[in-house]
Hints:
13% strand, alpha/beta, Rossmann fold, single chain, 2 domains, six-stranded parallel beta sheet, 18 helices
Amino acid sequence: MRIVLIGTGYVGLVSGACLAEFGHHVICVDKDQDKIASLKQGIVPIYEPGLNDMVERNVSQSRLFFTTHLEEAVRKADAVFIAVGTPSSRRGDGYADLTYVYEAARELAPFLKAYTVVVDKSTVPVGTARQVKRLIKEANPDADFDVASNPEFLREGAALGDFMRPDRVVIGVDSDRAVDVLKRVYQPLYLIETPMVITGLETAELIKYAANAFLATKISFINEMANLCEAVGGDVVGLAKGIGLDGRIGKKFLHPGPGYGGSCFPKDTLALIRVAQEHGSPSRIVETVVEVNAAQKARMIWKIRNALGGSEAGKTIAVLGLTFKPETDDMRESPSLTVLPALVEKGAIVRAHDPQGIPVAEKLMPELQYFDDPYETCIDASGVVLMTEWNQYRALDLKRIKDLMKDPIFIDLRNVYDPKTMSELGFSYTCVGRANGS
């Protein structure tokens, strides 16, 4: 099939590469000429394990192409996926900014010739697909097309596996013709019996928001339980195991820490709240989840300050990990963006390391000092803060780190290490929701 992806950001580029891997002829379109030029040269602008190789392979086999010319791409397409950004509104009201989605709809409309399915791949609020359909119809009354909603469920750091072997594929449609086209798009997944959820447009749009809100709820819940464990002398690791073994609950996303971040959970929970309020059906649970997450980030500042003896002023703090999660260079809404500037503001000197996030972090937090080696980061530090649980931080030479530090204070915001082991090594150890966690 001939497929077009509009937008070469995270979702567009991953989806385009994976659809090409399925054997389709895929053209990725973007207005950013520099980005397209880089992609044509084999330079992938984002970090995602395995993506470079997949892009290179499909380009070399003439299945994946990049262009700035929308018209020539759309004219022969069987399906056009809109995969542009939908950030939170600049007004700060939580609404998703659909400017780029609607702009893409208007721009592609004149080029629709034979029957085409226009697919919302971007995360969009309820009603967007029908609005896209209206805009296309206004711009090209004679167009033969359908609009579908096909939300993505890609985890940064595991996106290729999520696309190639997903838990499910959600397809929101209004016509059998559109179903037939999208079944052909995802034929390789039918062959491995991937569950296909065929539903209406509004339901499909809501599924993505509801899924992310539920996962965010699990994170905020376990963080509240971690705080309670600290207050009563409990152990959140045992608590999480005890409830996670219940098949109705499950163990995933029951890992306490400094709060959720990234490109999806913060944006999507706020958007869901606004949509719910707008339709007279407020989601009190999701509203509270957002409040708890903000409070958890603030609590991490207190934990660090408390571990350092009540004040960070004039002290050097080494930070390991800046991105919101491992295996990504994404800094969006990362807890580090809340915690670290607050420490600097109170007089701390923050030295930081991250395997992938430094180029972006340097622009967002220029007040920090950055290092390419985690051990160099710890030299003369009054405390080490493990902020993101990258694998390379799970097997640190802790004795070496202790010898490099000024004061052996280790603040583990991801519960990577065992409190007893850290104590035996001579660290003053602080974690989340466990003994020595307060």
